[in-house]
Design a protein that fits this description.
By secondary structure, this protein is mostly helical. It folds into two domains: 291 residues, no CATH class; 80 residues, Transcription Regulator spoIIAA. The protein contains 22 helices and four strands. Helix 2 crosses helix 16. The relative contact order is 0.15. It holds the Pfam family Sulfate_transp. InterPro entries: SLC26A/SulP_dom (IPR011547), SLC26A/SulP_fam (IPR001902).
Length: 496
């Protein structure tokens, strides 16, 4: 047999899954293209930068180790944070923020800190995603209506009725609303169409149909501004690095690092623990663990991150190795290099509609109802976290949620019991057991102070697993007060 015949066989032996990976990469590319552009526009940066992010996520991140079928790239959940950073510090500073964030994430990965995110409360995760979703929906509805969104989260929500009423009086705004609403409708109804039709990814179909409708009917709607790939990519200057001395910028970098990591890793932990309760889409969103359940290949390494929208498309398209995610980055690069002018035909309301749909998936309405019935404390943490993100900011909202979760856990762990044996004569015997912490201190003191003041008391602490300093001090003070009432000193035994 000639070498020409044997060569292709050797190639197929070396890359046995190339056919499946090649087909999957095209599907992921078609899913990623509108998402990359939409996230970039909503973040207040040139559309081409969204493609650059997808290219880096595909080619650079794709070659790295981790779950072989995960696909990285721009995520809708970071849209709000990026937009705020660009508005406050400017586009040049965004490069510094991203570089510093990447360095911190590499450090966290090297230190194997990713696994610790699995210990985070599910309610904080879902509250974070819900808050992101609400701000994302509110902000993008203004884009759908062809209006400018207020800066704050509360301002966005409060101003929506007025913006929609004003849009109803404008022909241009009505056309924009119709296009955005049509995009959302296509995304919602696409799954009900025949399977052959659904071979085209829903985001691509929605944007494609909206673009055709805008061109065919000459709709007066805003379209994506194209500056060219080379013009959009501007490395940060040395002056921009000088902004690292700003406390506000450093806080933003920390927020980027934590939120970007948490968006994947928190949800991965949530899915691991909550998948048995339901298959709510929030638990299948932005999660490495969700991808693990879709295939039998290598498991996720929690010190690497990715986004589930493209990852799920990759798995469902039949990808077998990481070649598919690398190739999808190659296709994005070729598109950005050869066909960037095509972006100028894409209507902004269509991209906003995609992000409104993505934001809606982040709000776990059913999960809140279920939690309220079964675990009201967890439901309260979820809601407070989401509302705090909307009212204050994403970083502070997550911190508030984490603080509430810690307090709730400490409260539930502080089970303490006081058993009193009073035989009518002799000393009153009191047995304290459980975990005595400051959170339960009022209950403990109320019970002890209710004991007869004219009788000696024997307090047995042998049943306590934990006694914190505040409780120990309070018990000592109570014993002094009780002993000072003219009775025998309180006898305290610890059993040790």
């Amino acid at each position: 047999m000639s070498a020409a015949v044997r060569s292709p066989n050797r190639f197929l032996v070396k890359f046995p899954h190339l056919r499946q990976d090649f087909a999957a990469s095209l599907v992921v590319f078609l899913v990623a293209l509108p998402l990359c552009v939409g996230v970039a526009v909503a973040s207040g940066v040139p559309a081409e930068l969204g493609l650059v992010t997808g290219i880096v996520g595909g080619i650079v991140t794709g070659l790295m180790r981790g779950s072989s079928l995960q696909v990285s790239g721009p995520a809708a959940g970071l849209t709000v944070l990026v937009f705020e950073a660009v508005q406050e510090y400017g586009l040049p500073a965004l490069g510094v923020i991203v570089l510093a964030t990447g360095a911190l994430q590499l450090l966290m990965g090297a230190l194997k800190l990713g696994r610790y995110f699995r210990a985070i409360s599910v309610s904080v995760v879902e509250g974070m995603l819900a808050g992101i979703g609400l701000v994302l929906i509110a902000g993008q509805l203004y884009s759908v209506a062809g209006a400018k969104a207020p800066a704050s989260g509360l301002g966005k929500i409060a101003g929506l009725p007025e913006a929609l009423i004003a849009a109803a009086r404008s022909t241009e705004a009505l056309a924009s609303l119709a296009l955005g609403a049509g995009t959302v409708a296509v995304l919602v109804l696409w799954r009900r169409l025949p399977r052959k039709v659904r071979t085209v990814p829903a985001p691509l179909a929605a944007v494609g149909l909206a673009t055709l409708a805008a061109a065919a009917f000459g709709l007066p709607v805003a379209t994506v501004e194209v500056k060219g790939l080379l013009g959009a990519v501007q490395p940060p200057s040395l002056t921009a690095f000088g902004d690292l001395a700003s406390v506000g910028l450093l806080a933003t970098i920390v927020a980027f690092t934590l939120i970007a990591s948490a968006e994947s890793l928190f949800s991965a932990a949530a899915v691991d623990r909550a998948a048995r309760r339901s298959a709510h889409p929030v638990r299948q969103l932005f999660s490495a663990a969700a991808v693990d359940r879709l295939h039998d290949g290598p498991r996720t390494q929690y010190d690497k991150t990715a986004v589930i929208v493209r990852s799920a498309a990759n798995v469902q398209a039949g990808a077998r190795t990481k070649a598919s995610r690398v190739l999808h980055g190659v296709w994005l690069l070729l598109f950005a290099a050869l066909l960037p002018s095509v972006l100028a035909y894409i209507p902004i309301p269509a991209l906003a509609g995609i992000l409104v749909h993505a934001g809606a998936k982040l709000v776990p309405v059913r999960a809140i109802v279920t939690l309220w019935r079964e675990h009201r404390g967890e439901a309260l943490i979820l809601v407070v976290t989401a509302v705090s993100i909307v009212a204050v900011s994403m970083f502070e909202g997550v911190l508030i949620g984490l603080a509430l979760a810690v307090v709730k856990t400490a409260w539930e762990a502080s089970h303490v019991r006081l058993d009193v044996i009073d035989k009518g004569a002799g000393p009153v015997q009191a047995y304290l057991s459980g975990n005595a912490t400051f959170l339960r201190l009022p209950k403990i003191l109320d019970s002890l102070e209710a004991l007869p003041q004219d009788r000696p008391v024997e307090l047995d602490l042998a049943g306590l697993h934990h006694l914190d300093h505040a409780c120990r001090t309070a018990l000592e003070n109570w014993a002094q007060r009780h002993s000072g009432a003219g009775t025998e000193p309180v006898k305290v035994t610890s059993g040790s």
